[in-house]
Amino acid sequence: MNNKELKQEIQQQLEQKNKTGQNSQEQSVLDGQDDTQSVESQQSSYVDYEDILRQSEFVPIRTLGRGTFGSVYEVYDREYGIVAVKIIQKEKFDVRELEAAEIIHKETRYCPFIMDHKQQKPNKNYQILISEYSNTNTLNLFAKQPQISLPSYILRTLMNQILEGMRVFHETGLVHRDIKCDNILLYCPPGTGRVYAKISDFGFAKKVDQIHEQTYAKGTLPFMSPEQFHKSSLITQKV
């Protein structure tokens, strides 16, 4: 319902209430004001992320995911071509995700089994991260559909790729802490017939710390390592 229709409906309610007396009319006016304020509040909280991306010289193609404080889009960028862009409110963004992505990008050679962080775009109110685009799905596509049986050699190949990605990840001194099927993206280079498993989402990543105990566990149940639930838990590559 648009604002014009809403005002018409409120006006009709007022006219109807007017027949029952002045008190009910006044109450109807108050109700109408509350309804209008509610609609205006919803409109003011809406954020057109695609418009923000266009202002940052991206061409939005489609939405890949939505969250409370941001979204992920497939976009076209003049420098990188087709990429994935995460846009999120700055005050809700965990800077550790960016720090981990930059560490991996700078300290390792390109690894085909880790999502490559390209760049961040400056914006006053939003954090905009550009990363490699995964054109297939996540490993969860198969995990949630047991009727899709993969040959054992494909499973071995995917597992080898994930383990190699973890090895390179650990070379930087980082611990991921949230390895799960949803964070393993699948990428098929056009025309190759190959599929690569890529580790993504570095929001919980942290440097190995053999001295300080972590104050609380990080990750997603039931995929968290048992080491995180120990009374004295250090940040090691086991977690």
Automatic annotation (TrEMBL):
<dbReference type="InterPro" id="IPR008271">
    <property type="entry name" value="Ser/Thr_kinase_AS"/>
</dbReference>
<protein>
    <recommendedName>
        <fullName>Protein kinase domain-containing protein</fullName>
    </recommendedName>
</protein>
<dbReference type="GO" id="GO:0004674">
    <property type="term" value="F:protein serine/threonine kinase activity"/>
</dbReference>
<keyword id="KW-0067">ATP-binding</keyword>
<keyword id="KW-0418">Kinase</keyword>
<keyword id="KW-0547">Nucleotide-binding</keyword>
<dbReference type="Pfam" id="PF00069">
    <property type="entry name" value="Pkinase"/>
</dbReference>
<feature type="domain" description="Protein kinase">
    <location>
        <begin position="58"/>
        <end position="239"/>
    </location>
</feature>
<feature type="compositionally biased region" description="Polar residues">
    <location>
        <begin position="20"/>
        <end position="43"/>
    </location>
</feature>
<dbReference type="InterPro" id="IPR000719">
    <property type="entry name" value="Prot_kinase_dom"/>
</dbReference>
<feature type="binding site">
    <location>
        <position position="86"/>
    </location>
    <ligand>
        <name>ATP</name>
    </ligand>
</feature>
<dbReference type="GO" id="GO:0005524">
    <property type="term" value="F:ATP binding"/>
</dbReference>
<comment type="similarity">
    <text>Belongs to the protein kinase superfamily.</text>
</comment>
<keyword id="KW-0723">Serine/threonine-protein kinase</keyword>
<keyword id="KW-0808">Transferase</keyword>
<dbReference type="InterPro" id="IPR011009">
    <property type="entry name" value="Kinase-like_dom_sf"/>
</dbReference>
<dbReference type="InterPro" id="IPR017441">
    <property type="entry name" value="Protein_kinase_ATP_BS"/>
</dbReference>
<dbReference type="GO" id="GO:0007165">
    <property type="term" value="P:signal transduction"/>
</dbReference>
<feature type="region of interest" description="Disordered">
    <location>
        <begin position="1"/>
        <end position="43"/>
    </location>
</feature>
<dbReference type="InterPro" id="IPR052751">
    <property type="entry name" value="Plant_MAPKKK"/>
</dbReference>
